[in-house]
Write a structure and sequence with these properties.
This protein has about 325 residues and is mainly alpha-helical. It has 13 helices and no strands. About 60% of the residues lie in helices and about 0% in strands. Pathway: Carotenoid biosynthesis; phytoene biosynthesis.
């Protein structure tokens, strides 16, 4: 049940969240329309909190943030305040901020472990600390915290509890984030954010500063293509996780899966030209993926006995309410 301290109606919070999504992620907004009503509300409300955290760290106003940028403390201070406010909200003191009221409602309603929210906030700490990544495993650790853990929480909202299903949900979030890194590789480099592992840069005979250099755009595009290729096994793993979800939820996830994967494929196909303007998906393409998503769901209504590859990055384990573990689970891979 939702916490008794909530000061705003769930429908009102969901409406605010929907407005946030419409501004922050058109791809997610399109896929979210396919969820059953209550799942959709919770998914949007969780996204709104995630977006709020992102906006606060960047000093923006796209989510629920209302404080003028001039009054914002330094990024690490903003992050520490986010952690405090999040933990307070989960403990029953959400104040009046819609972002935290929404997050607390979803956490209590779906019994989401506190550690998942903390892990997500740790991803922002990695950004604020300007952490550099030496290996692809370190980059994947970042991807899990900023996106994989959100996939886990979304799956739990949809009713998934078994660790194997949550692994697949994490894989989808990681695939999404690898696609984001490939899409924003130049823009992020201009801001001093480098997510491509140093080992890959060395292999390409590039330095971090070269990622923003127009003269090195062909080599940068090749790195982005490598990221897109690296995401493919994670997209593939996530596909086989659809069978663990109710049909409507699976349809929404399958649609988002198709839309985001296509963005990556388009980036790879365009090469250096992909960085003249942001790669996105047209309305017609989104509608096509809605149809393809329905076909994917029909193909996964009978669980396929496909084991999760042992080569994929393994997310941190914890005690999630209702989680089930058997000898055939995580460590032997699905």
């Amino acid at each position: 049940m939702p916490p008794p301290h909530a000061r705003a109606d769930r429908a009102e919070l969901a409406a605010l969240a929907e407005d946030t999504i419409a501004k922050g992620s058109k791809s997610f907004a399109a896929a979210a329309k396919l969820f059953a009503p209550e799942v959709r509300k919770s998914a949007m409300m969780l996204y709104a909190w995630c977006r709020h955290c992102d906006d606060v760290i960047d000093g923006q106003h796209l989510g629920f943030s209302r404080r003028p940028v001039a009054e914002q403390p330094e990024p690490m201070q903003r992050l520490n305040l986010l952690v405090i406010d999040t933990l307070r909200a989960l403990d029953g003191d959400g104040g009046v901020d819609p972002a935290f009221l929404s997050m607390a409602d979803v956490a209590h309603r779906h019994q989401l472990p506190t550690r998942l929210f903390v892990e997500h906030l740790e991803g922002y700490r990695m950004d604020v600390g300007e952490e550099h990544y030496e290996t692809i495993e370190e980059t994947l650790s970042y991807c899990y915290r900023v996106a994989g853990v959100v996939g886990v929480m979304m799956a739990m909202i949809m009713g998934a509890r078994g660790e194997r299903a949550l692994d697949r949900a994490s894989d989808l979030g990681i695939a999404f984030q690898l696609t984001n890194i490939a899409r924003d590789i130049v823009e992020d480099a201009r801001l001093g954010r480098i997510y491509v592992p140093a080992a890959w840069l060395a292999e390409a005979r590039l330095e971090a500063k070269d990622l923003a250099d127009p003269a090195k755009r062909e080599k940068v595009a090749a790195l982005a293509a490598r990221l897109i290729d690296f995401a493919e096994p994670y997209y593939r793993s996530a596909f086989f996780g659809l069978s663990a979800l109710p049909a409507r939820s699976a349809w929404a996830v399958a649609t988002a899966h198709g839309v985001y994967r296509q963005i990556g494929l388009d980036i790879k196909a365009r090469g250096a030209a992909a960085y003249g303007q942001r790669v996105s998906t047209s309305r017609a393409a989104k509608l096509r993926h809605v149809g393809l998503g329905a076909l994917k769901v029909s193909a996964t209504r009978i669980p396929w006995p496909v084991r999760r590859s042992s080569k994929l990055w393994a997310r941190p384990l914890g005690e999630a309410p209702g989680a089930e573990r058997t000898s055939g689970d995580r460590r032997t891979r699905l």
